[in-house]
Amino acid sequence: MDRAPEPHSGWTFLTNHSRVLASIAADSTTRVRDIAARCRLTERAVQKIIADLEEGGYLTHIREGRSNTYRIAAHTFLRHPADAPASVADLLALLAQHDSARPAAPGAAD
């Protein structure tokens, strides 16, 4: 049985919702278990975040057998008025740019 991720104290710049959305953007067929591991969240927390994103109109999913394929509503605007007129696509582009600039993890395959 997997251990729960270590808790993080203090504040962070990115919300768990943005982390989950970025993880789905990287792989639209990713599993909740894999999102949880990548974002260092519990599977239950990821399920709740996905439900929030779907309820807000930012995400939909299609059930394909035992798997889900997610679709992000990329042109939806971010929720906070101070973020206007930024869209989900703008946020994901910024996060993708950040990820591509990261050095490879030690021991990562070339």
Automatic annotation (TrEMBL):
InterPro entries per UniProt: WH-like_DNA-bd_sf, WH_DNA-bd_sf
Domain of life of the source: Bacteria
Protein name: Helix-turn-helix transcriptional regulator
Organism in which the protein naturally occurs: Streptomyces longisporoflavus
